[in-house]
Amino acid sequence: MENITAEAIKKKLDLLRNSSDFPRENNTQVNLPAVKNAGKALKKLIRNFPTHDNLDEIYLKVVAINSLYSTNIYDTYKIAYHIKERVKNIDSRLERGDLTLVHEIASGHHIENKDGKEKLFYSFATKYCSCHNPEHYAIYDTLIQDILIKDYNVGKSAKDRINYGKLRNYENFMNVISDFQHRHNLAEVSLKDIDMYLWIKGKEKEMEKCNW
Q1: Is 110 left (phi over 0), alpha (psi -120 to 50) or beta?
Q2: Count of CB atoms situated within 10 Å of the CB of 114
Q3: Are 203 and 195 in contact (CB under 8 A)?
Q4: What's this model's pTM, rounded to 2 decimal places?
Q5: Would you give the end-to-end CA distance of the chain in angstroms?
Q6: What share of the chain in percent tops pLDDT 90?
């Protein structure tokens, strides 16, 4: 991977922000027009429906985030109801960046897998929180986990290394993101820009593996 600097991140994201709205013609490149406009659409949606007083508005946000960010929730209404009725004081907690919200949104919804075990919608929960407060919540996505783990573990002893399991704890994940910012001198780069840069790099690596 290229040297990670604030300038490298800016250059990568400039390609995204300046990309044409014309749909891509093939799948050999990251779908920048779709990524750009998904972000713009969700930003407008949250601006119009920022709070959690009405179930229909929450439902709309859950459906949009699930669809545009591909979080694979098959019962979006149940998640919306869970957020409305079971997650307490969500607006004030989102505003102050309460990290415990992620686990509360990801679990306790009673959506089970085929083995009868409740599913953990961890990636969705980080994305939901990030959409409402991108400066306090980083996004977890499987596309970026390999990059973060490889980067974090450089020079670490066996006992200090991280793995996938540790990243599934959101406080651990945020600590890794903070470490990433510190070691690469990215204090002036927003969490949202770091998220997007890592996702694009992860998507590029995935496409390389598929020989697209």
Answers
A1: left
A2: 5
A3: no
A4: 0.95
A5: 18
A6: 89
